[in-house]
Design goal:
mainly beta, 7-stranded mixed beta sheet
Length: 119
């Protein structure tokens, strides 16, 4: 069965950096758009970023533009989220997602990894 396994979360101070990784198994990775969502305590889950199957196109929410970078390595079935200049408002559980090319939704979700940014 398909699995998306995130890693790299943790507790950091404001201004620090973290890199999240998500390894996908049991799917043809290059056929999927990959992305990240996050959910902060008491808030709804929100889209953060996505990257197309080739890595040629990316999208970000405004609050992370210039600070976060999504990338992927299709040979390793892995998507990354480099997070720089972290802010306390970035504190959330971060979820990796996969959506088949040509569809509008997300087919698979990971279990999430906690990112906590202290002020």
């Amino acid at each position: 069965q398909v699995q998306l396994v995130e890693s790299g979360g943790g507790l950091v101070q404001a201004g620090d950096s973290l890199r999240l990784s998500c390894v996908a198994s049991e799917l043809t990775f290059s056929r999927y758009t990959m992305g990240w969502f996050r959910q902060a305590p008491g808030k709804e889950r929100e889209f953060v970023t996505r990257i197309t199957w080739s890595g040629g196109s990316t999208n970000y929410i405004d609050s992370v533009k210039g600070r976060f970078t999504i990338s992927r390595d299709n040979a390793k079935n892995t998507v990354y989220l480099q997070m720089n200049s972290l802010k306390p408002e970035d504190t959330a559980v971060y979820f990796c997602v996969a959506g088949i090319r040509g569809s509008t939704g997300w087919n698979y979700w990971g279990q999430g990894t906690q990112v906590t940014v202290s002020s």
